[in-house]
Amino acid sequence: MTTTTKFPDLLSEVRAFRAANPDVRYVELICLDIPGHFYGKRYPMDMLEKVAAGGPLKVPQNCVLLGAQGGLHPIGDYCFNDGDPDAPRRLIPGTLKPVRWEKQPMGQMLISSDGTEAPIEFEPREVLARVLKRLEARGIRPVVAFELEFYLFDRKLENGLPQFPRDPLTGDADDQPNMHIERLTRFSEVLHETVEAAREQGVDANVITAELGPGQFEINFAHCDDGLHAADQAALFCRSTRGVAMQHGYRASFMSKPYLDAPGSGMHVHVSLYDQEGRNLLDGDQQRPLRHAVAGCLELLPHCMPIFAANHNAFRRYGAMVNSASKASWGFEDRDACIRIPESDGKNLRIEHRLAGADANPYLVLAAILSGMEYGLDQAREPIPSLNEDRRSGIDFPKDMLTAVAAMASHEVVKDKLGSEFVFVYCENKRQDHLDFMNEVSAREYRWFL
């Protein structure tokens, strides 16, 4: 299990970094927006030291609202109706790290509005921070581990389409995928450097698996007793993986469903809940709290689909191949379920939430999962039958973005748990992105209807 690194103060952290990395002249200060992209500014090292000593750090508030392609949508009183105001940010201690995938020596550090005098209600990290504070006030401490699947593609696209990655030794395309260990050997250089780069960013990456798709792999993280840090790790891992892959002649993508005839990529999240004495709350009272938490997650899941399936492509993943659910379901040691209960002893009893696409926003995914578990503990209801009891068991959830947005925007429990302003902004962002995506006449459309 990992915990966040503690520093006496930010200024000493910056000075220690400068001493250890004298060639680094600039540091990128970055934060995750609603679609899951990093935005920020590049600061000279001497200016970063001034910020760490208490100087101001501001970034336009509406950067959080950027769409999937980087543009702004008209959302309520924001964007085009508010004068594009700056908003305060803070440096996140323990996240100042060197970057190995840039041509010049570089550093990066996470920033956030959470913990400032004026946090941005719809900033993803702030949404998760509020959920965690609410649980902390109840004496509940989540322990979290992310698992992320991703694809490697050849660096060059062909007619705009991704190509299978090629074995660096033979030049053969990785077009006969399986889980054989030899695939890890063939792509070991990029995979091992991916893990090393992640660890340099403070990500406790460990187990590497060759997945079923061509060029598809999964890397796991250690369990972490700090929910914000766990989500930070997932976000930073995506960025470092893309950077390292490009250096090796590949594109790394966390796109949910890049190939229709191959498995999609998921974000699997393991969560257990502990009290202040270190007891696993899910294991008490003959595991009734576990079942209640599952019931809550299943009830809220259809109303959180824009979070779990963050774009048009992500909805293609559900029910299309093995181990990808088409209904909200649960089961013991069952990878076809949205919520899997891995075999474990009582101390490590947990849920594995398997529904989110790999390109979902990790802060929001974790916030939605924890809110579902909290709601379930409060309602104390039994879940629907598990898949172990009935293979047809499950609750329908939306399969397209516009239906999903409508289901989320109107749900009072979701608005209460995640914040009504966040739900409004997020749903409108997703609705506008989807409409922009559909606002193009494709070659197939001409072929069908011309």
Radius of gyration (CA) equals: 22 Å
> Low-confidence segments, ≥5 residues, pLDDT <50?
3-7
How many beta-strand runs? 15
Q: Which strand-content bin applies to the residues? A: 15-25%
* Major sheet characteristics: 8 strands, mixed
The CATH level-2 architecture of the largest domain is identified as: 2-Layer Sandwich
Shape: globular
In DSSP terms (H or I, runs of 4 or more residues), the helix count works out at: 13
CATH class bucket of the largest domain: Alpha Beta
Element order, helices and strands? HEEHEEEEEHEHHEEHEEHHEEEHHHHH
CATH superfamily of the largest domain, by name, is Glutamine synthetase/guanido kinase, catalytic domain
- What count of structural domains? 2
Keywords: Ligase, Magnesium
Protein name: Glutamine synthetase
Family: Belongs to the glutamine synthetase family.
Domain GS catalytic: 124-450
List strands and helices in order, with pairings:
Blueprint: H1 10-20, E1 26-32, E2 38-44, H2 45-52, E3 58-60, E4 86-88, E5 90-91, E6 97-99, E7 106-112, H3 124-137, E8 141-154, H4 182-186, H5 188-200, E9 205-210, E10 216-221, H6 227-247, E11 250-253, E12 267-274, H7 288-300, H8 305-308, E13 330-332, E14 339-341, E15 351-353, H9 362-379, H10 401-409, H11 412-418, H12 420-438, H13 443-449
Parallel strand pairs: 1-7, 13-14
Antiparallel strand pairs: 1-2, 3-4, 5-7, 6-7, 8-10, 8-11, 8-12, 9-10, 12-15, 14-15
Helix pairs in contact: 1-2, 3-9, 5-6, 7-9, 9-11, 10-12, 11-12
